[in-house]
Amino acid sequence: MNSSVDVIAPKWRTPQIFLLACVFVMSFTFATWQVLLNNFVIERANFTGVEIGVLQSLREVPGFLAFTAVFVLLILREHYFALLSLLTLCVGVALTGFFPTALGLYCTTVLMSIGFHYFETINKSLTLQWIDKAETPHFMGRALAIKAVGSLGAYAMIWLAMEWMGVDYVWMYLITGTIGFMVVLVLFAKFPDFNQGVVQTKKLLVRKRYWLYYALVMLSGARRQIFVVFAGFMMVEKFGYTVGQISSLFIINYIFNFFFAARIGKWIGVIGERNALVIEYVGLIFVFTGYAFVTHAQFAAALYVIDHLFFAFAIAISTYFQKIAQKEDIAATASVSFTINHIAAVVIPVLLGMVWIVSPAAVFFVGVGLAVGSLVLSLNIPARPDIGNEVRVGKVG
């Protein structure tokens, strides 16, 4: 889509570059928060499975409230909303190291999460509005590659600073958040307010014919919690992985994304959303089963890497929605879908945190059930989804 100021703006000031730059900042700052978290809460705040479960549930509350983004859009354009959200994320990350207590970490996590989830909501909306349907899978793959670059930069910096230079947690969080904050200010100054084209509906919107998309999104959010909360926690608690070792695993994950995510996105455009999601969910059934029985640190690391690889296939959920959605529904539905995505995410960490104390394996068997349910739902996606052809079975008005 052309900007309203394309005549005077340099060629690099495009919506695509703006989105990719924002994604880089988000990834760089959030990756630092994420990779340090498990070691930080265990070493400095003496967290158990209960406290980490509470923290992760609180982290998901802003995601559950993402539907409120549609009300913010009544007074703030999406372009500026995205930048303001990134600034909030950066401040939350910068402050994290200064509050090594349960209450302090709960507060900084919520602040960080408000920025993160609002940005993810608006970023998804703008991507589906600005990028042509034929190009969206490849572009979203490129965005994953850029996320990999941002994350790799963060992990490399953490590894060098903490493993070799002895930099403390508090300074790592502060440095990363400050760098992100400064980059966002540059983006605000250098990029114009792009014309969004179709005027978006600025009210809560739930359409019956999007029911399959909503269901896939909700199960995807639940599945993600198993990976984000408990797979990483297992690596530290059960196998004693250090910050450097966890960083190394993430580096492996994002090296793969850097080289292959764009190609996977392009491949999804060829094989279709249904086939891509079937591949993902069949793979996850085996991965979660492996988590339940793993006894060797190296095998656990392999499962962790394989688990992360399947996230690229989740592009198919968004491109499926883009094909079946009315253009003016995208912003409102992106807000509502993030709330739906976090219905299970708010509850699962707390409940499964208590289950974890009794049986970590049972947590991962829940993951197997989620993958099976997602697989069944994905088989209901038509070969060529479109407006009026949203599902194979269960069409509604």
UniProtKB/TrEMBL annotation:
Coiled-coil ranges per UniProt: none
TM regions (residue ranges): 17-37, 57-75, 103-119, 139-158, 170-189, 210-234, 246-264, 276-294, 300-321, 333-357, 363-383
GO molecular function, one term: transmembrane transporter activity
UniProt-listed InterPro entries: MFS, MFS_trans_sf
Pfam family, one: MFS_1
SUPFAM superfamilies for the chain: MFS general substrate transporter
Keyword Membrane applies: yes
KW RNA-binding (keyword) present: no
Protein keywords: Membrane, Transmembrane, Transmembrane helix
Protein name: MFS transporter
